[in-house]
Sequence to fold (243 residues):
Amino acid sequence: MNNNETHLEDVRGKEHKQTADFIKSFFQMALAAESQECQSYMAADGEVITPTRLHQGSVDSSLHFQQSIEKVMREKNLLFEHVLVWVDDLLIYARTIDEFLETIDLIYSQLEKYGLFLGMDKTCLYTKTAKWCGRVLTKDGVSYDSSKIQALIDMPVPTTAGALQQFLCAAGWMRSSLVDFARMCKPLQERLDKELAGTRRTKRVAGNISIELTPDEIVSFQHVKNLLQNAATLALPDPAGTI
Fold:
Protein backbone atom coordinates (compact mmCIF):
# COMPACT_ATOMS: atom_id res chain seq x y z
CA MET A 1 0.00 0.00 0.00
CA ASN A 2 1.18 3.52 -0.72
CA ASN A 3 2.35 5.93 1.95
CA ASN A 4 -0.23 8.72 1.80
CA GLU A 5 1.95 11.02 3.90
CA THR A 6 4.54 10.97 1.11
CA HIS A 7 2.31 11.16 -1.93
CA LEU A 8 0.16 14.01 -0.60
CA GLU A 9 3.15 16.19 -1.52
CA ASP A 10 2.02 15.76 -5.13
CA VAL A 11 -1.09 17.87 -4.41
CA ARG A 12 0.93 21.00 -3.66
CA GLY A 13 -0.27 24.00 -5.67
CA LYS A 14 -3.09 22.03 -7.31
CA GLU A 15 -6.28 23.64 -6.07
CA HIS A 16 -8.85 22.04 -8.40
CA LYS A 17 -9.97 18.71 -6.96
CA GLN A 18 -12.49 15.91 -7.06
CA THR A 19 -13.02 13.04 -4.62
CA ALA A 20 -14.68 9.80 -5.67
CA ASP A 21 -15.54 6.36 -4.35
CA PHE A 22 -16.11 3.15 -6.30
CA ILE A 23 -19.57 1.64 -5.93
CA LYS A 24 -19.49 -1.95 -4.56
CA SER A 25 -15.80 -1.73 -5.27
CA PHE A 26 -14.48 -5.27 -4.77
CA PHE A 27 -17.39 -6.86 -6.64
CA GLN A 28 -16.36 -4.95 -9.77
CA MET A 29 -13.22 -7.11 -9.99
CA ALA A 30 -13.57 -10.49 -11.70
CA LEU A 31 -11.58 -13.39 -10.25
CA ALA A 32 -9.38 -15.35 -12.63
CA ALA A 33 -10.63 -18.92 -13.09
CA GLU A 34 -7.49 -20.34 -11.45
CA SER A 35 -8.08 -18.17 -8.36
CA GLN A 36 -11.72 -19.03 -7.79
CA GLU A 37 -11.27 -22.42 -6.12
CA CYS A 38 -8.92 -21.11 -3.43
CA GLN A 39 -11.47 -18.38 -2.63
CA SER A 40 -14.29 -20.90 -2.12
CA TYR A 41 -16.00 -21.28 1.24
CA MET A 42 -18.60 -23.57 2.79
CA ALA A 43 -22.01 -22.28 3.86
CA ALA A 44 -23.83 -23.43 7.00
CA ASP A 45 -25.79 -26.04 5.04
CA GLY A 46 -22.59 -27.56 3.67
CA GLU A 47 -22.85 -26.03 0.21
CA VAL A 48 -19.51 -24.94 -1.25
CA ILE A 49 -19.75 -21.47 -2.74
CA THR A 50 -17.17 -20.50 -5.35
CA PRO A 51 -17.08 -16.75 -6.05
CA THR A 52 -16.39 -15.32 -9.48
CA ARG A 53 -15.78 -11.80 -8.15
CA LEU A 54 -13.29 -10.44 -5.65
CA HIS A 55 -14.90 -10.47 -2.22
CA GLN A 56 -14.26 -8.44 0.88
CA GLY A 57 -12.54 -10.23 3.73
CA SER A 58 -9.78 -12.02 1.86
CA VAL A 59 -6.30 -11.25 3.16
CA ASP A 60 -5.15 -9.39 0.08
CA SER A 61 -8.45 -8.17 -1.44
CA SER A 62 -7.75 -4.53 -0.61
CA LEU A 63 -4.21 -4.69 -1.97
CA HIS A 64 -5.33 -6.40 -5.17
CA PHE A 65 -8.10 -3.86 -5.77
CA GLN A 66 -5.80 -0.88 -5.18
CA GLN A 67 -3.04 -2.27 -7.40
CA SER A 68 -5.57 -2.91 -10.17
CA ILE A 69 -6.86 0.68 -10.04
CA GLU A 70 -3.30 2.02 -9.95
CA LYS A 71 -2.48 -0.03 -13.06
CA VAL A 72 -5.46 1.52 -14.84
CA MET A 73 -4.27 5.03 -13.90
CA ARG A 74 -0.62 4.38 -14.77
CA GLU A 75 -1.64 3.49 -18.31
CA LYS A 76 -2.22 7.21 -18.99
CA ASN A 77 0.49 8.48 -16.59
CA LEU A 78 -2.18 9.77 -14.20
CA LEU A 79 -1.05 8.11 -10.97
CA PHE A 80 0.70 10.54 -8.59
CA GLU A 81 0.50 13.24 -11.27
CA HIS A 82 -3.25 13.83 -11.10
CA VAL A 83 -4.74 11.05 -8.97
CA LEU A 84 -4.08 9.27 -5.69
CA VAL A 85 -5.69 5.93 -4.86
CA TRP A 86 -6.44 4.52 -1.42
CA VAL A 87 -8.25 1.20 -1.90
CA ASP A 88 -11.58 2.42 -3.37
CA ASP A 89 -11.14 6.16 -2.71
CA LEU A 90 -9.82 8.48 -5.42
CA LEU A 91 -8.38 11.97 -5.05
CA ILE A 92 -8.16 13.79 -8.39
CA TYR A 93 -6.31 17.10 -8.66
CA ALA A 94 -4.97 19.62 -11.18
CA ARG A 95 -3.28 23.01 -11.21
CA THR A 96 -5.68 24.82 -13.57
CA ILE A 97 -9.35 24.40 -14.35
CA ASP A 98 -8.58 23.44 -17.96
CA GLU A 99 -6.08 20.83 -16.80
CA PHE A 100 -8.67 19.58 -14.30
CA LEU A 101 -11.32 19.07 -17.00
CA GLU A 102 -8.82 17.28 -19.24
CA THR A 103 -7.79 15.06 -16.32
CA ILE A 104 -11.39 14.17 -15.47
CA ASP A 105 -12.01 13.24 -19.11
CA LEU A 106 -8.95 10.98 -19.16
CA ILE A 107 -9.80 9.29 -15.86
CA TYR A 108 -13.44 8.67 -16.76
CA SER A 109 -12.37 7.28 -20.14
CA GLN A 110 -10.04 4.85 -18.39
CA LEU A 111 -12.76 3.76 -15.98
CA GLU A 112 -15.19 3.26 -18.86
CA LYS A 113 -12.58 1.27 -20.79
CA TYR A 114 -12.22 -1.22 -17.93
CA GLY A 115 -15.90 -1.30 -16.93
CA LEU A 116 -15.40 0.42 -13.56
CA PHE A 117 -18.08 2.51 -11.89
CA LEU A 118 -18.01 5.31 -9.30
CA GLY A 119 -20.76 5.84 -6.73
CA MET A 120 -22.16 9.32 -7.32
CA ASP A 121 -23.57 9.55 -3.79
CA LYS A 122 -19.98 9.56 -2.49
CA THR A 123 -18.43 11.66 -5.25
CA CYS A 124 -17.69 15.38 -4.95
CA LEU A 125 -17.43 16.55 -8.56
CA TYR A 126 -15.48 19.72 -7.80
CA THR A 127 -13.95 21.36 -4.76
CA LYS A 128 -10.95 23.43 -3.73
CA THR A 129 -11.03 22.01 -0.19
CA ALA A 130 -11.16 18.24 -0.44
CA LYS A 131 -11.97 15.82 2.37
CA TRP A 132 -10.18 12.56 1.58
CA CYS A 133 -9.36 9.63 3.86
CA GLY A 134 -9.92 11.71 7.00
CA ARG A 135 -7.76 14.59 5.79
CA VAL A 136 -8.65 18.06 4.54
CA LEU A 137 -6.55 19.22 1.60
CA THR A 138 -6.11 22.65 0.10
CA LYS A 139 -3.46 23.80 -2.38
CA ASP A 140 -1.32 25.01 0.53
CA GLY A 141 -1.57 22.35 3.22
CA VAL A 142 -3.06 19.29 4.88
CA SER A 143 -5.04 19.11 8.11
CA TYR A 144 -7.31 16.50 9.68
CA ASP A 145 -11.09 16.41 9.49
CA SER A 146 -12.39 18.57 12.34
CA SER A 147 -15.32 16.19 12.97
CA LYS A 148 -12.89 13.33 13.66
CA ILE A 149 -10.82 15.53 15.96
CA GLN A 150 -13.93 16.67 17.85
CA ALA A 151 -15.07 13.07 18.34
CA LEU A 152 -11.80 12.35 20.19
CA ILE A 153 -11.98 15.56 22.21
CA ASP A 154 -15.49 14.60 23.35
CA MET A 155 -14.44 11.11 24.51
CA PRO A 156 -14.87 10.50 28.25
CA VAL A 157 -12.03 9.15 30.37
CA PRO A 158 -11.57 5.50 29.27
CA THR A 159 -12.87 2.84 31.65
CA THR A 160 -11.73 -0.14 29.58
CA ALA A 161 -8.47 -1.01 27.88
CA GLY A 162 -10.45 -1.16 24.64
CA ALA A 163 -11.56 2.48 24.93
CA LEU A 164 -8.00 3.54 25.76
CA GLN A 165 -6.67 1.55 22.80
CA GLN A 166 -9.21 3.17 20.49
CA PHE A 167 -8.28 6.66 21.70
CA LEU A 168 -4.54 6.11 21.31
CA CYS A 169 -4.86 4.51 17.87
CA ALA A 170 -7.07 7.31 16.56
CA ALA A 171 -4.90 10.07 18.02
CA GLY A 172 -1.76 8.28 16.82
CA TRP A 173 -3.12 8.29 13.28
CA MET A 174 -3.07 12.11 13.49
CA ARG A 175 0.32 12.29 15.21
CA SER A 176 2.01 14.11 12.32
CA SER A 177 -0.03 17.19 13.30
CA LEU A 178 0.39 16.75 17.07
CA VAL A 179 3.52 18.38 18.45
CA ASP A 180 5.28 16.25 21.11
CA PHE A 181 2.62 13.54 20.85
CA ALA A 182 4.89 10.61 21.80
CA ARG A 183 5.97 12.20 25.09
CA MET A 184 2.47 13.38 26.01
CA CYS A 185 0.85 9.99 25.49
CA LYS A 186 3.65 7.91 27.04
CA PRO A 187 1.86 7.27 30.40
CA LEU A 188 -1.26 6.12 28.55
CA GLN A 189 0.70 3.86 26.21
CA GLU A 190 2.58 2.30 29.11
CA ARG A 191 -0.72 1.63 30.92
CA LEU A 192 -2.22 0.04 27.81
CA ASP A 193 0.87 -2.15 27.30
CA LYS A 194 0.64 -3.26 30.93
CA GLU A 195 -3.05 -4.15 30.69
CA LEU A 196 -2.63 -6.08 27.44
CA ALA A 197 0.60 -7.88 28.34
CA GLY A 198 0.27 -11.57 27.54
CA THR A 199 -2.95 -11.12 25.53
CA ARG A 200 -3.62 -11.04 21.80
CA ARG A 201 -4.09 -7.23 21.99
CA THR A 202 -7.30 -7.43 19.95
CA LYS A 203 -10.19 -4.99 20.26
CA ARG A 204 -12.42 -7.73 21.70
CA VAL A 205 -9.90 -8.74 24.37
CA ALA A 206 -9.15 -5.12 25.31
CA GLY A 207 -12.85 -4.26 25.56
CA ASN A 208 -13.31 -6.82 28.35
CA ILE A 209 -10.53 -5.40 30.54
CA SER A 210 -11.77 -2.77 33.02
CA ILE A 211 -9.34 -0.03 34.04
CA GLU A 212 -9.27 3.07 36.20
CA LEU A 213 -6.75 5.69 35.12
CA THR A 214 -4.47 7.20 37.74
CA PRO A 215 -4.41 11.00 38.25
CA ASP A 216 -1.19 11.22 36.20
CA GLU A 217 -2.74 9.20 33.40
CA ILE A 218 -5.82 11.43 33.39
CA VAL A 219 -3.51 14.45 33.06
CA SER A 220 -1.83 12.74 30.10
CA PHE A 221 -5.27 12.06 28.59
CA GLN A 222 -6.14 15.76 28.83
CA HIS A 223 -2.77 16.79 27.40
CA VAL A 224 -3.41 14.66 24.31
CA LYS A 225 -6.85 16.27 23.96
CA ASN A 226 -5.19 19.69 24.12
CA LEU A 227 -2.84 18.63 21.34
CA LEU A 228 -5.84 17.60 19.25
CA GLN A 229 -7.49 20.98 19.81
CA ASN A 230 -4.34 22.66 18.51
CA ALA A 231 -3.50 20.23 15.71
CA ALA A 232 -1.17 21.85 13.19
CA THR A 233 -1.93 22.29 9.51
CA LEU A 234 0.99 20.77 7.62
CA ALA A 235 2.48 22.68 4.71
CA LEU A 236 3.16 20.70 1.57
CA PRO A 237 6.92 20.59 0.84
CA ASP A 238 8.29 22.66 -2.02
CA PRO A 239 11.13 20.76 -3.75
CA ALA A 240 12.51 24.07 -5.03
CA GLY A 241 12.32 25.77 -1.65
CA THR A 242 15.18 26.48 0.74
CA ILE A 243 15.46 25.90 4.48
About this structure: The chain has nine helices and ten strands.
